[in-house]
Specification:
This protein has one domain: Hypothetical protein af1432 (Orthogonal Bundle), CATH 1.10.3210. The longest helix is centred in the N-terminal third of the chain and has 17 residues. It is mainly alpha-helical. It has twelve helices and no strands. The chain starts with 13 loop residues before the first helix and ends with a helix. It is elongated and about 65 Å long.
């Protein structure tokens, strides 16, 4: 026990075990697992049974290991190849991310991502940075759903341009802008940015929202 807190002092090897569990969790996520379940699956696998609660890594630990795994030269087979192969390896786990069927009847997050990509490609087929943003905007949902944008940007560092990163980072604000829920100052900041219209296009690349908007427009014309 420590004198001040009364909590048990870390034993030698605890940090190493936590790091090993985080690395195994990152491997599970890379193969399509969800970060929340991956932490406990990895703990059972590495610890070969029950482990102390403080030895179970948090989402930040798994995110750091996942980011390290995405670095050039890492041993993970999933991350070999060029920049585009590594982006594909980060997008692929979205196939295991289930979505609310009422809002996203298209299926898992990967299906949603690919449909969003197609919608953006129909409008801007030669804008590589915008198309990349459409493809990677949900990458973080396979790592940490509670902070998906930050998680995605962390593992994508070095793989995407600054403009693509800005589009991904400000996509939630663009959706709020479209919903009319974005604050006054934030609206003005977003409108003043050079990529304002592009991030709105990305926000509109939602298969269900697109379909509902089409029906609403048709109904208004008929009315």
């Amino acid at each position: 026990m420590t004198a001040e807190s009364g909590a048990p002092e870390p034993r030698p090897g605890d940090d190493k075990l936590r790091r090993r569990i985080a690395a195994e969790a990152a491997r599970i996520v890379a193969r399509g697992g969800d970060s929340e379940r991956a932490r406990y699956r990895a703990a059972r696998r590495v610890g070969q049974g029950w482990v102390q609660p403080e030895q179970i890594p948090d989402h930040d630990d798994v995110r750091r290991e996942f980011h390290r795994a995405a670095s050039p030269g890492h041993e993970f087979a999933a991350f070999t190849g060029d920049r585009f192969d590594r982006i594909a390896a980060l997008v692929a786990p979205l196939a295991a991310v289930r979505q609310d069927p009422a809002r996203h009847p298209e299926g898992d997050a990967l299906d949603h991502t690919l449909q969003a990509f197609d919608l953006v490609r129909a409008e801007r087929p030669f804008d590589e940075e915008l198309l990349t943003a459409a493809l990677v905007h949900d990458v973080g949902r396979a790592i940490d759903r509670a902070d998906a944008v930050a998680a995605g940007l962390a593992v994508l560092e070095g793989l995407i341009t600054a403009r693509t990163a800005w589009l991904v980072e400000h996509l939630p604000a663009a959706r709020a802008y479209r919903d009319g829920t974005l604050g006054h100052r934030a609206r003005h900041r977003l409108e003043a940015h050079a990529d304002f219209h592009d991030v709105l296009l990305l926000a509109d690349a939602d298969p269900l929202d697109e379909a509902i908007a089409t029906l609403r427009d048709l109904a208004a014309e008929d009315g």
